[in-house]
Amino acid sequence: MLSHEEKIEIEEELKGAPFKRAASIDALKVVQRHRGWVDDQGLKDVAVMLEMTPSELDSVATFYNLIFRRPVGSHVILVCNTITCWMMGCDSLLKRLTERLGVPLGATSADGGFTLLPVPCLGACDQSPVMMVDGKLYGGLTPEKVDEVLKEHGWKG
Amino acid sequence: MEGLNEKPLTALMRPDKAALSLAEYERAGGYQALRKALKLAPVEIQRVVKESNLRGRGGAGFNTGMKWSFVPMDSDGTKYLIANADEMEPGTFKDRMLLEGNPHQLIEGMIISAFAIVATEAYIFLRWEYALASERMSKALSEARAKGYLGRDIFSSGFSLDIKLHVSAGRYICGEETALLNALEGRRAVPRAKPPFPQVSGLWGRPTVVNNVETLSNVPHIIANGDEWYRGLSRSKDGGTKIYGVSGKVKRPGLWELPMGTTIGEILEEHAGGMREGLKLRCLIPGGASTEFLTEEHYSVKMDFDSVMEAGSRMGTGTMIAVDDKTCPVGVLRNLEQFFAQESCGWCTPCREGLPWVEKTLSAIEEGRAKPGDLEVLEMHGTSLWIGRTYCALAPGAMEPLRSGLKLFRSDFERHIKEKGCPYKAH
């Protein structure tokens, strides 16, 4: 069931929408903001509010890489692996991150703390290599700085 | 030549990179162009912008005033203006600066542009990762609404407009204007067939114009100072200044607002400081991932739409990626094609199936698993995914670096195949 807050926020999104389905991405983001991801029941409940079938809504949800249809950790790390960052050494950052967190790209650390995802160009190529943690951008990274960023987000090592 | 020192888009920006507030923007003359515009006829604004030779800064380079002129002016009902702030072309980071540094410049440009096509609703389509831009745009929109610059009857002109901020949820294809429309309608962001063009049938089937952030940010300056002034800012036929950028292993990666038509060599050597010590330029990608490689031979080429086209590439977004001589060119192509394969929306078969094949073939060559005929496979894709063979421009865009790379780096490819691996791997 959607929580009271989730319902109110989705209704708010619906107010500005000329058709209910126009709010589908925003509504999915509401659920994700509250739960960290969009679970099956959440998706079904949103579909009812938007007068869509669950599969219709899921076809939208699964299209967008920043709508998570699987659980993620408390912190989501998005590492740019596109051309400039690749030339500037994103592989060394990814190596450090996978070592520290003990998981490959696309997975969540065993303690549920961090999910590590590759992401296309973050549009900060002058600060390359870059990554984002919970929506905050970090540039000019080195493996050593990656450790600092992890600590800032509560990594105990 | 005085015009060549002017930097209308960035001169006001604060050195500390904080956003210009509404009060600061107004003190520097902001929103005066809007007052002036609302006293003109919409078609007059279209004419001035067309004459200014402002060409679309998203990369396609279509004359902006001309684009607007396809909107039916006699139609009743809602029309839309959309700012494309889904900056995702690899190597491109110019719109971020405009969004974060001077959000009111974009808002003013949007109001004037909406008035020019008599659109009463507008959206800013922003990529999710631009979180700081989102925060600053929301604040600026609230400031503009509170002052009555957005809303009903702006400056008692009878013209009403609101701008909504839509924060997207990822995928490169959303930057394609018709895919963007589907995303805004809450659908999968698959491109639409053209015609009908969005100017006739766009968002919810209504006339819609989609313009890039940098394009729209230019509009207040053109209205304030006139089309002749705007053309005079440029060193070439295209009007205005351009925000150029350089990334890669150069001494000073960054962005610079310079006269349109500044040469590639000047941007790379004088502004970006040239390559870092011990490195040489192997090649450059002039305007985002989907443009053909150029080399040092092209230093004298002017960075404008026509000149770069004549040199065999495209200016695209005008933000160059400099590739150094210690970086493997096959690796560069592999990275680029991996991106395009991942970002294909999956709608049309050549793109969905062809790009992963290209990526796998490049990976095999890079990792020493090449088979005879692999280069022919790559060449074949350069033809079968080319313009006219696919539903939208994504796959042809992916083929631009591949086609030019196969020619330019032929000996590197052959060496990878002969030596069964990457000769640059030691680095």
Q: Which two chains share the most extensive interface?
A: A-B, 42 and 53 residues
Give the CATH topology of the largest domain in chain A: Glutaredoxin
Structural class of chain A: alpha+beta
- Report the helical percentage of chain A: 40-55%
Average pLDDT of chain A works out at 97
Distance between the termini of chain A: 37 Å
Outline the biggest β-sheet of chain A: 4 strands, mixed
The CATH topology label of the largest domain in chain B is Rossmann fold
Give a brief rundown of this model.
The complex is a heterodimer of chains A (157) and B (427). Chain A has 157 residues and is an alpha+beta fold. Chain A has helices spanning 4-15, 24-35, 40-50, 54-61, 83-87, 90-101, 143-152, and strands spanning 75-80, 114-119, 131-133, 136-138.
Key traits:
heterodimer, A: 157 residues, Arc Repressor Mutant, subunit A, 2 domains, 4 strands, B: 427 residues, alpha/beta, Rossmann fold, de novo design (two linked rop proteins), 4-stranded mixed sheet
Any overview of this molecule?
The complex is a heterodimer of chains A (157) and B (427). Chain A has 2 domains: 4-61, Arc Repressor Mutant, subunit A (Orthogonal Bundle), CATH 1.10.10; 75-152, 3-Layer(aba) Sandwich (Glutaredoxin). In chain A, 45% of the residues lie in helices and 11% in strands. Chain A is built from 7 helices and 4 strands; from the N terminus they run ααααβααβββα. Chain A has a 4-stranded mixed sheet with strand order 2-1-3-4, with helices on one face. In chain A, a hairpin with a 2-residue loop joins strand 3 and strand 4 (136-138). Chain A is elongated and about 50 Å long. Chain A starts with a helix and ends in a 5-residue tail after the last helix. Chain B is α/β, with parallel strands linked by helices and 427 residues long. Helices cover 41% and strands 11% of the residues of chain B. Chain B contains 17 helices and 8 strands. Chain B has helices at 22-27, 32-37, 42-52, 64-69, 94-101, 103-117, 131-146, 177-184, 213-225, 227-232, 264-271, 305-310, 329-343, 349-366, 374-384, 394-408, 410-418, and strands at 80-85, 121-126, 162-167, 208-212, 241-248, 254-259, 281-285, 319-324. In chain B, strands 3-2-1-4 form a 4-stranded parallel sheet, sandwiched between helices. A 4-stranded mixed sheet of chain B has the order 6-5-8-7, with helices on one face. In chain B, a hairpin with a 5-residue loop joins strand 5 (241-248) and strand 6. In chain B, helix 13 (329-343) packs antiparallel against helix 14. The model of chain B has no long low-confidence stretch (mean pLDDT 96). At the A-B interface, helix 2 and helix 5 of A face strand 3, strand 5, strand 8 and helix 13 of B.
